[in-house]
Design a protein that fits this description.
two-stranded antiparallel ribbon
């Protein structure tokens, strides 16, 4: 542990990073009390800012609610596990139940139906229709007018391409119409029930409706455009089993991710790499090669593997029974936050220094000491990671959008008759589950290393400056939100920041113990306890307003609606707002106009 070297700035480029870290301070030095004081001051400032921001966003939520126009989600609840008596339908059961127990406020309901096969046909029809429109919009020479119908256009009989797609579109339209007529009888024990007031919908969503707790399950409905339709047919038992499966899947993914982490740590330690690959020892001795291999390459490999995880988390969250895209996005975001913290931070730190000392992990009381030994040694790796994942990837992904550019180039060059992709005409939305975990992870690095190795702070500060400019531009000029978050992601950010503070405190306790200042170590112990008390207060003070709006706001808004002359027109639209979009009439061409009447009222 260093000896407080006098810094020679003439040889600054050759200095080790430890010269700028707490490791360079002598054991028992009075200078360590500066670090101790900084931890207390920093914790107080962060907690004050968290409280101020929590209060500000909670107030903004209320202001947003009062200023918003009536929305279907404010008046509607989703009812699942609907019991059906003999001789009645699901629609009859819903109508009789809510007419009896909510006679003055019940408005209407919409039964959910199984439409997975129908959605597949509609997606196929959309693709054929877009291909046909694309072909009609450009000139086709005589050689491209005919093609074979087999695999890759190499096999099968030759057909006139426009006539082929027109006939195929006509067949798909017929299949869609037939499936729509069958779907009317494929009811799912779930329904959207609408009320005349927000207060009644809130009461219905928060109270147990039936005697049996597994029947008449209610929750506030999302906005119609935010609904995730595939999982409505799942029973209570199926949703519970899927949650168990997701937990085990996350554990397995975490274990499998140890492979690239160990590979990355092997690259950061040249002596281990030469031991594993002795035939590369000559090349690895070259200065430029060793700098690239141990500096930039490990963080690049780790970021490449990490970029594969967000889509997997979205898939896992989508099978947990969530009914809204926003809920799936938030669940995937939470999974990614803790996956990143564990696999990028803890696994890298522990595998880099304690891989052959697993016995230490069996003694939890030595965890502060272990982290105090391990975390400072990974400062250089995390600086390279901030540059790779923060500076480089944020710039290339958000501004240049290289993936989409390369894909468009390859598709246009390799597919001579390819139609425009469905995604090309779709305005992108911000992937919260990918961007928020990255921002929070850099926040964790800044909080953890600010008293251990402050040299990392300028890199993180530059990242946040760039990110503010880039994301502000993207949110205002590029992205179109698929759903309204209403500030609901803030509790995730708050909890992650509290965790970062507690982690910093634990490392500080171990570090001051290693530095032979037991008094400072003992005086740091109250900090995590006070931080947890502060977090508990914030959750009790603010979190309920993020789960739903208070009765005072709901009733006041309902009273304002009574004076709104357009509320009756809104009620009429509310009756059909939650009809499945797959049941709407299909209008691909003029041939479907004569048979495009809606099947459901």
């Amino acid at each position: 542990m260093g000896n407080q070297l006098n810094m020679d700035f003439t040889d600054l480029p050759n200095k080790s990073l430890e010269s700028f870290s707490i490791s360079n301070v002598d054991d028992g030095s009075n200078r360590l009390w500066i670090h101790f004081s900084a931890i207390y001051v920093f914790t107080a400032v962060v907690c004050y800012l968290l409280y101020f921001e929590y209060d500000y966003i909670a107030a903004r939520r209320v202001s947003y609610f009062y200023s918003s126009k009536p929305r279907p989600s404010q008046f509607t609840v989703l009812v699942r596990s609907i019991p059906v008596t003999s001789g009645s339908t699901l629609s009859d059961s819903v109508e009789s139940f809510f007419s009896e127990f909510y006679p003055s406020t019940y408005l209407s309901h919409s039964i959910v139906r199984r439409t997975s096969k129908l959605k597949g046909l509609i997606n196929e029809g959309d693709k054929v229709y877009k291909k046909l429109v694309h072909m009609k919009s450009k000139e086709i020479d005589s050689q491209q007018r005919y093609k074979r119908t087999g695999c890759l256009g190499l096999f099968g009989p030759k057909v006139e391409i426009l006539d082929h797609y027109e006939k195929k579109l006509e067949d798909v339209e017929g299949d869609v119409r037939r499936e729509q007529s069958y779907v009317t009888g494929k009811e799912v024990p779930a329904a959207f029930v609408s009320f005349k007031s927000r207060f009644s919908a809130a009461i219905a969503s928060n109270l147990q409706q039936g005697v049996k707790p597994t029947e008449w399950l209610t929750e506030l409905a999302p906005d119609p455009q935010d609904i995730y339709w595939p999982f409505f047919s799942a029973s209570f038992l199926k949703r519970w089993m899927c949650n168990i499966v997701v937990i085990f899947a996350c554990i397995i993914i975490t274990i499998l991710f140890l492979v690239p982490v160990l590979l990355v740590q092997g690259l950061t330690h040249m002596d281990q790499l030469e031991k594993w690959l002795p035939f590369l020892s000559g090349i690895l001795k070259l200065k430029i090669v060793s700098q690239v291999v141990t500096g930039y390459l490990p963080s690049l490999i780790l970021e490449t593997f990490l970029s594969l995880v967000p889509p997997v988390m979205i898939v896992l969250s989508s099978i947990q029974g969530f009914i809204a895209i926003s809920q799936i996005e938030k669940s995937a975001c939470i999974k990614m936050v803790w996956f990143t913290v564990w696999n990028v931070f803890f696994t890298n730190v522990l595998s880099g220094t304690a891989l052959y000392r697993l016995d230490v992990l069996l003694e939890p009381k030595r965890l502060p000491e272990l982290l105090a030994l391990a975390v400072p040694g990974q400062a250089s790796f995390f600086i390279a990671y901030v540059v790779t994942s923060g500076w480089t990837k944020t710039f290339s992904t958000e501004l240049l959008r290289l993936k989409r550019l390369v894909w468009s180039f390859l598709k246009g060059g390799l597919c001579c008759c390819a139609s425009e992709s469905e995604d090309e005409l779709e305005v992108p939305s911000i992937p919260f589950h990918r961007e928020i975990p990255r921002i929070l992870f850099f926040s964790l690095l800044g909080i953890t290393y600010f008293f251990l190795a402050p040299l990392i702070l300028p890199f993180i500060f530059i990242y946040y400056c760039l990110a503010y400019i880039i994301y502000r531009n993207q949110l205002l000029n590029v992205y179109v939100p698929k759903f309204e978050t209403g500030g609901k992601f803030w509790p995730v950010i708050h909890d992650a920041t509290i965790f970062s503070l507690i982690l910093m405190h634990v490392i500080a306790i171990g570090m001051f113990g290693l530095k032979k200042i037991p008094l400072a170590s003992s005086l740091t112990i109250p900090l995590p306890i006070l931080t947890l008390i502060f977090n508990s207060y914030c959750r009790r003070r603010f979190l309920p307003s993020f789960k739903g709006f208070p009765a005072q706001c709901l009733i006041n808004k309902d009273r304002l609606d009574e004076q709104d002359p357009t509320i009756s027109a809104f009620y009429e639209k509310l009756a059909t707002a939650y009809n499945d979009p797959a049941l709407k009439p299909v209008r691909y061409s003029a041939r479907s106009e004569s048979s495009s009447s809606p099947l459901l009222p």
